[in-house]
Design goal:
The protein is α/β, with parallel strands linked by helices. The chain has 10 helices and 12 strands. A 4-stranded parallel beta sheet has the order 2-1-3-4, with helices on both faces. Strands 5-8-6-7 form a 4-stranded antiparallel beta sheet, sandwiched between helices. A 4-stranded antiparallel beta sheet has the order 10-9-11-12.
């Protein structure tokens, strides 16, 4: 029996519907359930062929459990080693190398010193930074947000240099990005599953949270194909099995705004019935596909093109 497990936190609608969808297909030798952890012993198998990870970004113990599962042959969705290493600034830097339009972005040291450091820990950091060049490159208005994390937490809209200094002083030990504002005509949130299945959803981030998927953008077929190719390219290079990409369209160009969402919102109440049904069904089919393909005792993780090309020293755009 090949078991598919779901590791989750407070959410309920997606995990339960996913389990029901997998088991409802009555595929011989395949079953799905909630992951149950009663001990974690180094190098021991979890007994799961596939685990869908929805919560380890918030629980370090779970991340360690998943890495241990992966080295014992579990196909973890998403790859816990890559997820641990990834962050939004690297993603933007990678996008510039693979031909994906992104806003002009810089990374900033934290306003307050990290724990267990002093001024002497930053011998290589200029003080002050070259703020004039930074502001000239990004421009105003701009957005400031954490280089890691999500959920629209600690996001600021910055009007000018004075506004920046005031708001940056509120960020404590967070490492922040300063990013060009893209004044968009249309906005889309796009599920990508398995590096091949894409769902493009009109999305309006300026609406209240419960109304963000209530948007009437109707892109032409050519734009849809263009956005789908961007979404696929990003996820294939990053190696994410389950992710969302946010695209802001300005002057006909889709800019990738946020594309590091490896535990994306999949709650029925927020994404809507049609999107919910798609993500549940597609995730179930993909998890079954991965379970059938797993090879016992081998590495069954997904590794992105960035890592694979680095190993063979192949150019990113080649």
């Amino acid at each position: 029996m090949k078991k598919i497990g779901v590791l989750y936190g407070k959410e309920r609608s997606f995990p339960m519907a996913f389990i029901e969808a997998v088991n409802g297909k009555n595929i011989r030798g395949i079953m799905a359930e909630s992951v149950l952890i009663d001990k974690v012993i180094q190098g021991y198998s979890t007994g799961y062929s596939v685990i869908i990870d929805r919560i380890s970004q918030d629980v370090p113990f779970y991340r360690a459990y998943l890495k241990n599962a992966a080295i014992s042959g579990t196909a973890v969705i998403n790859n816990p080693f890559w997820w641990s290493a990834d962050e939004k600034f690297f993603n933007n830097a990678l996008a510039t190398k693979i031909g994906v339009p992104v806003p002009k972005t810089v990374i900033l040291p934290s306003r307050e010193l990290p724990e267990d450091t002093t001024d002497l820990s930053f011998s290589n950091l200029a003080y002050p930074l070259d703020w004039e060049s930074i502001f000239k490159y990004v421009g105003f208005p701009a957005y400031m947000k954490p280089f890691a994390g999500g959920g629209w937490k600690n996001v600021y809209r910055i009007q000018n240099a004075e506004d920046f200094y005031q708001k940056h002083s509120e960020t404590g030990r967070l490492v922040m990005l300063l990013q060009e504002e893209i004044v968009f005509e249309e906005y889309y949130r796009c599920y990508c599953i398995g590096g091949k299945y894409v769902r493009i959803m009109p999305y309006e981030p300026r609406n209240p949270h419960h109304l963000r998927y209530v948007a009437d953008f109707s892109p032409p077929e050519e734009r849809l194909r263009q956005m789908e190719q961007i979404v696929l390219r990003i996820n294939q290079y990053l190696g994410y099995d389950f992710n969302t990409v946010e695209l802001a369209v300005k002057d006909g160009i889709p800019y990738a705004i946020d594309f590091c969402n490896p535990a994306p919102d999949a709650e029925r109440a927020s994404v809507g019935e049609d999107n919910f049904n798609w993500v549940v069904e597609t995730a179930a089919l993909y998890a079954i596909e991965r379970a059938l393909d797993t090879k016992e005792g081998l590495d069954n993780l997904t590794w992105g093109e960035y890592i694979k090309r680095s190993i063979v020293q192949k150019p990113l755009m080649g």
